[in-house]
Amino acid sequence: MNFFHWLTAHGLVMAIASLVYVVHSHVMQQRRQPSAAIAWMLFILLVPYLALPAYLIFGSRKLPRPGAQHLAEPMSVGNLQHWAIDTLVALGQPAPAAYTDLQVHAGGEAAQNALLSLLASARKSIDVCTFILARDPLGEAVVNHLCERARAGVRVRLLLDGMGSLMRRPPDLQRLLDAGGTFALFVSPLRSPLKGRTNLRDHRKLVLVDADEYDGRLWSGGRNLAAEYFQGLPGAMPWRDLSFELGGPVIGQAVALFEHDWRFARGLPPDSLTQSFATVGAVQQADGAQLVASGPDQADDTVHALLVSAAYRAQRRMSLATPYFVPDAALLMALCMAARRGVRVDLLLPARSNHRLSDFARGRALRALAQAGGQIWLTKGMLHGKLVVVDESLALAGSANLDSRSLFINYELMFAFHLETDVGQFQSWFDSERADAKPFSAQPPGLLRDTLEGLLLWTGFQL
After folding, report:
1. Which stretches of the chain drop beneath a pLDDT of 70?
2. Which partner from 3, 275, 281, 314 sits 20 to 30 angstroms from 379, CA to CA?
């Protein structure tokens, strides 16, 4: 084949790959951030032979959605509408509902004791959703409790992420089946990549005990079910993380979301309850809590939209804790603008996380925020907690990191709290974790580092 024929064939491949990208994005309504869309197009134009298969395997960001759902009416707090509540309801999330007995765990030991005690107390049902269930003392203890309760006649369902089960080998779950429990993998790693869901990960962390539409007990936060997220292993420091538990009617929202995820993982069609969890819940209560789901099953990027709104709405202080800080341009600009207009923006993250590439890629964002007046704090040891507190009016806690994978691709679960006293509980956790952190000092990057950061941010837009 001469050069002209090769060039013609190459151009045809580029045209076909570009057409597939455009048509698939339109038909599947795959709205992307501009930087991600540009990166995919450049990848396709430069290396279409690799880019097209990669797009078909990893490119799906949103799943097809049913018709428009009924949304709750905006709520008023006093004579003023609460911006966070109105924003979430407009994004298809449920209105706030009452909750009781919120407990923010002081540390890994308290979180572990609360989790195991909660499992042991089950009399009717246990539903567990987690990204990682490790084959270590903590994971084995969890499975032992699940088996014991299943043998006692409690309905036990365990939902594990497929990628998480590859990253950390889970305990032997055959004994759970033998005891009468059930488990499912959310997007099995053995699923055909041609179905376009290989890159979807369920990062939600949720434990429901004796829960129904009106009450029960809920345990949630950022902790995977592995020893390092609690008390650690001998000779290794435990990670610093955030989890909490509560009761009350808001649990109905979590019940509906778990049912939605469970049926998806089992290949079942959604029933009337799970088609729109935004309408589930008891009497709306303005100072209650809201479940905030984010991911391919939501029409909008809910957590990202709320964070951008929060940065522009904040009046006095924003406190943000995350293990990974690689925000997109819109969120970074919003945080920088908040700092420039006098809002105290405190960002807490580990000096070294468990993902070195993320640590390298965060450099540009940290320098920009520091230059705008934000205060950045680096913890000794691994910080894995995820929290955003805005003034005294909003605390957002759960599983979502401040990076593009969590905000635009993963299935994530957060809870928004609006009661001032409980927002204060989460602020106290943040202040305690920040107490022994060291301030970040921004240094101008060299040419090589600046170039490598840019390349990493460009190539890492999807993975």
Report:
1. 1-7, 9-10, 13-14, 17-43, 45-47, 49, 51-52, 54-81, 189-199, 271-284, 458-463
2. 314
Alpha helices in 266-323 (DSSP H): 302-313
Cα–Cα distance for residue pair 95/84, rounded to 1 Å = 11
Task: Using alpha carbons, select from 236, 225, 242 the residue that is nearest to residue 134.
Answer: 225
Tens digit of pLDDT for each residue in 63-110?
554 443 444 444 444 433 489 999 999 999 999 999 999 999 999 999
319 touches 386 (CB < 8 A): no
Going from the C-alpha of 387 to that of each of 76, 264, 280, the distances in angstroms are 25, 28, 25
Closest CA to 257 of 414, 105, 124: 414
Q: Which amino acid is at 398?
A: G
Distance between the two ends of the chain, CA-based, in angstroms? 36
Q: What are the φ and ψ backbone dihedral angles of 383, each rounded to 5 degrees?
A: -100, 125
Residue whose token pair is 């590859």: 166
Q: How far apart are CA 212 and CA 281, in angstroms?
A: 10
Q: How far apart are CA 154 and CA 118, in angstroms?
A: 13
3-state secondary structure (DSSP) of residue 171: coil
Q: What is the pTM of this model?
A: 0.83
Q: Phi first, then psi: give them for residue 115, nearest 5 degrees.
A: -65, -50
304-339: pLDDT as tens digits: 999 999 999 999 999 999 999 999 999 999 999 999
Neighbouring CB atoms inside 10 A of 56's CB total 18
Which helix (H) or strand (E) segment is 403 a member of? strand 402-403
Tokens of 35: 């930087």
Q: How far apart are CA 364 and CA 454, in angstroms?
A: 9
